[in-house]
Amino acid sequence: RLEPLEDLVTGRAGEQLPEVAHAHLPQRSRWWSVPPEVKLSLRPQESYSSLNAFLNAPYQWVLKYKARLSPSNLLAVADENLLYGNLAHRLIDRFFRTDGAQALRGDALTAWFSREFANVVAEEGAVLLMPGRRSDYERLRSALERAIGEIQRQFGAAGIDAVESERDLAGTFPGGALEGQADLVVRNKSGQRAIVDMKWSGANYYQDRLAKNRHLQLAVYAEMLRQETGAWPQVSYFILKASQILAPDKAFFPEARPVQSGATGSTPLLWDQFTAAWRWRRSQIDAGMIEVAVEGIEPTPESAGPPDAFVPEELPEAYNDYRWLAGWED
Question: By the 8 A CB rule, do 140 and 128 touch?
Fold first, then answer.
């Protein structure tokens, strides 16, 4: 029966309540074992987000997609970088859905930006309208005005004649169906396409992704577009805060900052490395082995994949909703 929580805490609850046996919290371990009768089957559809967890933090994938554990959406309000990124994506999506957006200049562009920036903040970033946030509001406004101007300049230099914002993508991989949504898919006058993934900040981080051939999100999106069109697209990051395009070379975006990788044909090679890593992880999960890849738990020999596979990496602890379920230290 139901009892007030206060009575349970103070001991005033009814004596007929069963006593709960004390149990120690589970200790941290690099691997969880799943009984043979428990089958962690393939999902009907995967995305980059789910595959990122599957490869780099399998226990997060199991808890989120198989155990269906998820944090409450009411626990926090987006602020700072997450909020700025969300507002930037929304504003630029509106920009490219506006007829003749690429041709807007001068007073017409200023008027459009002032109106739509105010609307987007009022609808999705009202925290920036609170007392004491005016400087944050103005900094964001200035950064996004520069970013839109730079997008126009970069796309003009590249001869872009078609832009698809929030472009839905679909495809297949060895594990089944894939889905995703690219921030921008653009086409130049020669008919070549490129995927532009917009990030609020982190220019050095994403430059490192390209240099080390670890731009997996872009590779997944590029493969889906390749399956649709028959040709590999160019890939790039647009860092909004810095108003900068990062690309493997200047072949598509002549004004981009080129970041060369040591691997020839980097995006197709990265896709092959991903599929090899997926098969390796899938074989572990089929055998009931779930790796708890978190900071503070040393890897074991089983943590290393085959030589031709994408090498896993620890995901940022700050974005791990399941870190307290990984076990406890003494």
Answer: yes
